[in-house]
Write a structure and sequence with these properties.
This protein is an all-alpha fold. The protein has 21 helices and no strands. It has one domain: MFS general substrate transporter like domains (Growth Hormone, Chain: A, Up-down Bundle).
Length: 418
């Protein structure tokens, strides 16, 4: 763990304050969904089919998975702070370029460059594991996730309003301004938490197989992949569903999209308060159950052909709430498999999570048509929820087998081979 002093605002000699970690993680969420309500308008602007324009989400997610694979080991080698600073600089420039793009090809180029901001996801998780042990990490990640949830909760309504008033380009100008503000905070507040940097990149990448052969790492990671995949599947189809089936405007779609992050914020707050007390396994299982059974009633509302948008969108609160319980604890477990590889684990786990999310988002979008109704989106979400629950049960079984103790008795100091 880091030997830095306790966090003090704007003191680079101390560990970063939790609000700084919230900000660097939150801007990554903003870049994903602030413009989602504008996708139909953007498709018309560039004269592209909606399915192609939706690639600005799915393609972006796929690219961020590759970026995370690189940034994790790099942060283990040269530190968390420099990686985050340079990522923000590139993100600001790419956001301005996207806003000014006159062709779809140029826009996609800058959109791809924006993916570097995913460093915030990697650095925030790795920094927490640098600072504290596992159960405490789950609690701290819960509080970070609770604050971070404000970004995807507020960003879609803000993006919808900006698009209605000033055009879709205003979303990307807003991202550049937000990036500048966070860059200032990071420069003055984020102390370096990686006190045991790798001697070389060769040494760092040689250690990667330790993660690849770990059943516990794969168990936690796949739990995250499918849990977060429910949210990305929802994002992939929600704008289409909102406009085509419920006749919503961009700002109304944005407002409906904020219901899920609201659930995530509440669930993450509960994780922050109780993960250290009840342990990560109870939190993970409870979250998976809520996500699955909370969304199940949407099958009934679809069958009854309920015309009000809340007949579908209100139940997506369960996706966010369930993930708020699952994600912080599953992330803490994943990072604890090999604490000396926290950055690499955050990068690899994050890469797989976003790649899985991109696949589910693309699948949901490709299956939705005016003829199918909303059923394909519901089935994608429920299937991912069920898979997450199965992986959670598997992971807990492996943990108990490897550690030879009941889940409630496990300690953060345990580091047994699996």
């Amino acid at each position: 763990m880091s030997e830095l002093p306790a966090p003090r605002y704007f003191d680079r000699r101390s560990a970063p304050h939790v609000t700084t970690l919230v900000l660097i993680a939150g801007i990554g969420a903003v870049s994903i969904n602030i413009f989602l309500a504008s996708l139909p308008e953007m498709a018309r602007f560039y004269d592209q089919p909606y399915a192609i324009m939706q690639f600005t989400l799915t393609g972006y997610l796929a690219l961020t998975s590759l970026v995370q694979l690189m940034l994790g080991p790099i942060s283990d080698r040269i530190g968390r702070r420099p990686v985050m600073l340079w990522a923000l600089v590139l993100f600001i420039l790419a956001s301005l370029g996207a806003a000014l793009s006159t062709s779809f090809e140029l826009f996609m180029t800058f959109r791809c460059l924006q993916s570097v901001v995913v460093a915030g996801f990697v650095i925030s998780r790795a920094s927490v594991r640098d600072m504290v042990a596992r159960e405490k990490a789950a609690s701290l990640l819960g509080y970070i996730a609770m604050g971070m949830a404000l970004a995807p909760m507020l960003a879609p309504p803000l993006g919808g309003v900006l698009a209605d008033q000033f055009g879709w380009q205003s979303n990307f100008y807003a991202m550049s301004v937000i990036g500048c503000l966070i860059l200032i905070v990071v420069y003055f507040d984020q102390g370096e938490t990686n006190q045991h940097m790798s001697a070389s990149f060769t040494e760092q990448f040689k250690a990667y197989p330790e993660l690849f052969v770990s059943r516990r790492f794969w168990g936690y990671t796949l739990t995250l992949v499918f849990a977060v995949g429910t949210f990305f599947a929802f994002l992939g189809g929600a704008p289409f569903v909102g406009e085509k089936f419920y006749g919503l405007t961009a700002s109304q779609v944005g407002l409906c999209l904020s219901i899920t992050p609201l659930g995530y914020m509440i669930g993450s707050g509960i994780s922050g308060r109780f993960a250290n007390r009840f342990g990560i396994y109870k939190m993970i299982l409870t979250g998976c159950f809520i996500s699955l059974f909370g969304m199940a009633p949407t099958l009934l509302t679809a069958w009854l052909e309920i015309q009000h948008a809340l007949g579908f969108f209100a139940f997506t609160f369960a996706i966010g709430f369930g993930n708020g319980l699952t994600v912080p604890s599953a992330s803490a477990g994943m990072l604890d498999v090999r604490p000396q590889l926290a950055g690499s684990a955050a990068g690899l786990g994050g890469a797989l999570t976003t790649l899985g999310g991109a696949a589910l988002s693309a699948l949901a979008a490709s299956l939705l048509t005016e003829e199918t109704g909303i059923y394909p989106l519901i089935f994608c979400i429920l299937a991912a929820s069920a898979a997450s629950l199965i992986m959670a049960i598997y992971t807990i079984a492996i943990e108990r087998q490897v550690r030879g103790a009941d889940a409630g008795e496990l300690t953060a100091a345990d580091n047994l081979s699996d």
